[in-house]
């Protein structure tokens, strides 16, 4: 073990603590500094024997979280105290009662919200999802819990380097799955962007490094372009004696990568790599007029794209974001996004919900407290929270991503719903009873069906009937969490009633087969019949969707299984017990894919088809043993977020001569002999076996899709390079 310089560590801790006090000084009231010091010494004492994975004293983590709360989110004393103590109950002997006694009734509930649930979980549920749910439930009481949790997650992501690989994947996946969208919804754009970038850094490190280097290499040219672009605007603003400042903001690495993927283009073809932001000082009552005046100055010099004007000043986003966005054509014929806002709007854009409190008096009209409205909607959803944790999380996430559509009641009252909302969503938004009895709607005085998708400015009147009742079909076209949860509540009651009979049938069958109906067995039957919950299984049996006779088949195929000669390891509920068994069999904790196949059975996940050379992880499934996924698999964030305890470290070792299936897409200009040249390279030059090839040519453009067997990623990269060099081919890329 390395020598630890205790005196040096003490200096570092004090330096960080003093930095925190300096940042908090402007808003401290009488007695606050004393309380913060007490929280610091309590945390210091509680964590005194603990170290982080990096080897540094643990106390540096709560100090860093508290500093992020002050400096980057703008929170106050209660939050600083809570951040300093956020791990004390979870990791030490302190109880919530001790926190309440020492620090009062405001701090204790926040610490409770930040403390993970301990204990044993029912088989088939997700401890992670339960913890997320517990934390999110506090959103209805005190939003500071979520804001401190975001600060905690940001610091964990910034220091992820020292964690083992499977923990990196789990934490990075949770971040993109829940925390980044949550930061976005609460208006914390800087934190959201950094969380997304750090997720990419640890899940697709090569992609991250490549884009970061390219952004860095274009920095000087970008700076010169921005200076030339803003010069005439600055001249005009100076002439009019405006108080302003202008900054060029590069797009985040993650958003550039998303654009490259979405549009299937290389970095060089992403034109809007940055945005120009003009921030002005203006009195509250003149803010709107001032922004439009600056817009007028910008468009005097540069021609705007009329389709790209976004006015979030008249109707702010649901997270309170206000800004005027326009995209204009620069002198060198490239599009540039210009954002115009006041300093008040800019602070809200950077610090989101926390800045909202600061400007509370500014908001007088009900439609301007949009973030409050969103939190009220979430609160309502949380109160009718009777679903399992994973289902709850899915519903909650669907609320985080959506943009809004603005519609009106017959009396002219403005309602905000997620984009894609239907007439039925609108009905449930007004009242649960109206939603449950909704028969149709009149939109702008025309009759429309329940699944009519609402557009901005629609005026909606709901038609009801006492004979109407919700059906399973409704869930296919509603998008709001409120509508989904209310429909599910009604259906669940009907389902529960029918499921009692189904449960009796399953238990009777198991009794005949002399099998004890434990949670584990029921969960395996559920997975075998491809149902989400045991309730769905019982309901499916009761309504005839599943034949009870197939339970016998389940016994033969899953419980008995083909007796192989290989040394099998029993499928287990989580990766830890699996890895312990693997250690006994193999003497180390790393699952090496590509050798020792007599020790571990695994299957390649069809959703992402990993091949040797890809970065991968193993996932312990309930019935199919271990599935191997690429870290960039589209299903990875959800698997790792909800079931991180089932992740097994995995990497390719000896490259045996095994062929793996990969897909290539080829785009180019059509010419005679092009297909012949392509197939020649694949089968003759590189001796690759093709499974299939499909070709489509339209208006002189050639698009081919080829499935072929390769040995590893190097083999595939070599093939892509060769094909790209063929005359007429513009692009070759791998797809899943």
Keywords, please?
RelA/Spo_fam, globular, kinase activity, Beta Polymerase, domain 2, 736 residues, Hypothetical protein af1432, six-stranded mixed sheet, 20 strands, kinase, 5 domains, alpha+beta, five-stranded mixed sheet, 28 helices
End-to-end CA span: 45 Å
CATH top-level class of the largest domain: Mainly Alpha
| Outline type | globular
- Give unreliable regions as ranges: 119-124, 361-368, 562-572, 585-589
Q: Please describe the biggest sheet, giving its number of strands, its sense, and whether it closes into a barrel.
A: 6 strands, mixed
InterPro entries: ACT-like_dom_sf, ACT_dom, Beta-grasp_dom_sf, HD/PDEase_dom, NT_sf, RelA/Spo_fam, RelA_SpoT, TGS
Pfam family, one: TGS
GO molecular function, one term: kinase activity
Domain TGS: 403-464
Structure notes:
It is a single chain. This protein is an alpha+beta fold and 736 residues long. It has 5 domains: 6-188, Orthogonal Bundle (Hypothetical protein af1432), CATH 1.10.3210; 211-351, Beta Polymerase, domain 2, CATH 3.30.460; 489-558; 591-652, no CATH class; 660-735, ACT domain (Alpha-Beta Plaits). The chain has 28 helices and 20 strands. Strands 1, 2, 3, 4, 5 and 6 form a 6-stranded mixed sheet that branches. Strands 12-16-14-15-13 form a 5-stranded mixed sheet. Strand 18 (689-698) and strand 19 (701-710) form a beta hairpin. It is globular and about 80 Å long. Mean pLDDT is 81; it is low at 119-124, 361-368, 562-572 and 585-589.
């Amino acid at each position: 073990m390395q020598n630890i310089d205790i005196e040096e560590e003490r200096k570092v801790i004090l330096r960080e603590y003093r930095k925190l006090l300096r940042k908090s000084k402007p808003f401290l009231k009488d007695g606050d500094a004393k309380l913060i010091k007490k929280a610091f010494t309590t945390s210091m004492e509680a964590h005194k024997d603990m170290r982080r994975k990096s080897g540094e004293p643990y106390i540096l983590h709560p100090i860093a979280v508290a500093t992020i709360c002050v400096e980057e989110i703008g929170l106050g004393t209660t939050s600083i105290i809570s951040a300093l103590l956020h791990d004390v109950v979870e990791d030490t002997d302190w109880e919530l009662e001790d926190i309440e006694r020492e620090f009062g009734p405001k701090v204790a509930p926040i610490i409770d919200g930040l403390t993970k649930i301990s204990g044993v979980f029912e088989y088939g549920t997700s401890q992670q999802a339960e913890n997320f749910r517990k934390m999110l439930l506090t959103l209805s009481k005190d939003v500071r819990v979520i804001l401190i949790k975001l600060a905690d997650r940001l610091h964990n992501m910034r220091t992820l380097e020292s964690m083992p690989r499977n923990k990196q994947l789990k934490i990075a996946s949770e971040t993109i799955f829940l925390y980044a969208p949550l930061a976005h919804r609460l208006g914390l754009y800087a934190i959201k962007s950094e969380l997304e970038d750090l997720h990419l850094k640890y899940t697709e490190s090569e992609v991250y490094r490549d884009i970061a280097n390219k952004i860095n290499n274009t920095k000087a040219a970008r700076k010169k372009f921005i200076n030339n672009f803003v010069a005439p605007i600055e001249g005009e603003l100076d002439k009019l004696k405006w108080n302003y400042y202008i900054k060029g903001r590069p797009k985040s690495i993650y958003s550039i990568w998303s654009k490259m993927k979405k549009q299937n283009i290389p970095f060089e073809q992403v034109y809007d790599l940055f945005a120009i932001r003009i921030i002005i000082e203006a009195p509250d009552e003149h803010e709107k007029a001032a922004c439009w005046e600056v817009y007028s100055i910008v468009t005097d010099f540069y021609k705007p794209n009329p389709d790209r004007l976004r006015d979030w000043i008249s109707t702010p986003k649901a997270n309170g974001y206000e800004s005027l966005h326009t995209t204009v054509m620069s002198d060198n014929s490239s599009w540039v996004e210009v954002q115009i806002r006041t300093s008040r709007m800019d602070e809200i854009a950077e610090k989101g919900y926390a800045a909202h409190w600061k400007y509370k008096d500014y908001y007088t009209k009900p439609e301007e407290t949009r973030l409050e409205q969103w939190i009220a909607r979430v609160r309502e959803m949380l109160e009718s929270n009777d679903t399992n944790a994973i289902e709850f999380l899915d519903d909650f996430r669907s609320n985080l991503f959506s943009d809004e559509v603005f519609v009106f009641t017959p009396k002219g009252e403005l309602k905000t719903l997620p984009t894609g909302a239907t007439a039925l969503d609108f009905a449930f938004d007004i009242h649960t009873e109206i939603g449950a009895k909704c028969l149709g709607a009149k939109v702008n005085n025309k009759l429309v069906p329940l699944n009519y998708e609402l557009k901005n400015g629609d005026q909606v009147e709901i038609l009801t009937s006492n004979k109407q009742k919700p059906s399973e079909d409704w869930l296919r076209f509603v998008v709001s969490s409120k509508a989904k949860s209310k429909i599910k509540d009604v259906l669940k009651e009907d389902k529960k009633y029918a499921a009692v009979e189904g449960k009796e049938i399953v238990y009777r069958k198991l009794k005949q087969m002399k099998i004890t109906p434990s949670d584990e067995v029921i969960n395996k039957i559920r997975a075998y019949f491809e149902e989400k919950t045991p309730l769905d299984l019982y309901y499916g049996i009761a309504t005839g969707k599943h034949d009870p006779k197939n339970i016998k088949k389940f016994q033969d195929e899953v419980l008995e299984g083909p007796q192989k000669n290989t040394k099998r390891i029993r499928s287990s509920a989580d990766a830890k017990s699996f890895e312990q068994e693997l250690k006994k069999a193999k003497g180390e904790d790393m699952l090496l894919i590509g050798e020792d196949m007599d020790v571990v059975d695994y299957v390649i996940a069809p959703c992402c088809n990993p091949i040797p050379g890809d970065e991968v992880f193993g996932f312990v499934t309930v019935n199919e043993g271990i599935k191997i996924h690429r870290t960039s698999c589209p299903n990875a964030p959800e698997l790792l977020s909800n079931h991180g305890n089932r992740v097994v470290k995995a990497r390719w070792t000896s490259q045996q001569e095994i062929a793996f299936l990969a897909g290539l897409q080829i785009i180019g200009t059509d010419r005679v002999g092009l297909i012949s040249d392509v197939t020649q390279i694949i089968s003759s030059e590189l001796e690759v076996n093709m499974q299939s090839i499909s070709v489509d040519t339209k208006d002189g453009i050639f698009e081919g899709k080829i499935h072929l067997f390769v040995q590893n990623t190097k083999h595939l990269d070599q093939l892509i390079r060769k094909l790209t060099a063929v005359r007429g081919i513009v692009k070759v890329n791998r797809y899943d």
